[in-house]
Amino acid sequence: MTAPATVALIGAAGHGAWHLRAIDALGERVRLVATCDVQPGFDYTDHRLMLRERRPEVVVVCTPPHTHLPIALDVLEAGADLLLEKPPVLSLADHRTLAAAAEGRALQIGFQALGSPTMDRLPGRVGEVTSASVAGAWWRPDDYWTRSSWAGRRGRDGALVNAFAHALMQALAITGIRPPWTLSLDRYRTRCAVEVEDTATLRLDAPDGRSLFVAVTLCSTEFVPGDISVAGKDGTCEVGYAQDRLDGEVLPGRTGLLENLLDHRDRGTPLLVPLERTEPFTALAEAILAEGPPTLLGPDRLAPRPDGVEIPGIAGLVRRAAAERAHFREIGAFQ
Ligand SMILES: NC(=O)c1ccc[n+]([C@@H]2O[C@H](COP(=O)([O-])OP(=O)(O)OC[C@H]3O[C@@H](n4cnc5c(N)ncnc54)[C@H](O)[C@@H]3O)[C@@H](O)[C@H]2O)c1
């Protein structure tokens, strides 16, 4: 048996707790040598000092999105392999910088739904994929938008690039659509202090006819999970990316991204989410940022609740937009 890989976690206090459990679940395969967070209570507050003193072979980075690039560069410079949380970076220029620094190292990005067994089974159901559409309606209360320093900030957060990031990345991977593409967006927000969209539609059309449509909101008291309807040359099917559901059947056997990274180091198993696979997601994040602030919906469109703001009827609008592949503005919503 190979010796346990030494692992460190940078960004341990937030979602990092999930990674600590994932590290623990790998048992003898890994040895946690350090935790690091700028908040007290962990082994280190300075990740550079930690990298110098503990020399981990593998590092998990789970810090806020805008800190990913500098920390990732330090980790790669120190000679470690890296599991970097999503979104890896926020611009294509940063993507290229990171890709160059990762030459000769293993770099996995934390879109964990790409380890889903549904991905292997899908082609057998639908054949060559021609289109996908996502309908998601969730409720996020006011305090969601103050949960951390980067919550609600331009280029870092938002229904498309954060809350529904896994749905978006999964749909990009399922359709295989990459730039150049034709992108159109229709984005709204319900809170003046929040710079990003909480409600949006997105349409992507590839030159060869493949298409992707996303309709999402965080202002719905009726829950629509964000499943992906996939159409191919031989059929259609419904993918529940969060629970590995394919047409309602939950498939066992999701591969964890850290485990896959260890398999890659030990025996050359291909990485499930190499940086290159996420380039279309970063291209979208960059385009969404470039579009500027979303439209602020007026109070006449909203129903205040004790803990937040609801858009009445939004779940129905999300379903309709996704079914018709039509932007909210094209189906007469919010006018
Ligand atoms: N894959 C998923 O399902 C999933 C789920 C939640 C969050 N995330 C991603 O994980 C990352 C962290 O999200 P979060 O919700 O935990 O954010 P957060 O802001 O709550 O926590 C990030 C942690 O990083 C720490 N930190 C900040 N700068 C640091 C630095 N220079 N060195 C060490 N620690 C530092 C903070 O103190 C905090 O404890 C984000 O990229 C987010 O998108 C992924």
Automatic annotation (TrEMBL):
InterPro entries: Gfo/Idh/MocA-like_OxRdtase_N, Gfo/Idh/MocA_oxidrdct_glycsds, GFO_IDH_MocA-like_dom, NAD(P)-bd_dom_sf. Pfam families: GFO_IDH_MocA, GFO_IDH_MocA_C3. Keywords: Oxidoreductase. The keyword Oxidoreductase applies. Residues 124-236 form the GFO/IDH/MocA-like oxidoreductase domain. It comes from the Bacteria. Residues 16-106 form the Gfo/Idh/MocA-like oxidoreductase N-terminal domain. The keyword Cytoplasm does not apply. PANTHER family: BCDNA.GH03377. This is Gfo/Idh/MocA family oxidoreductase.
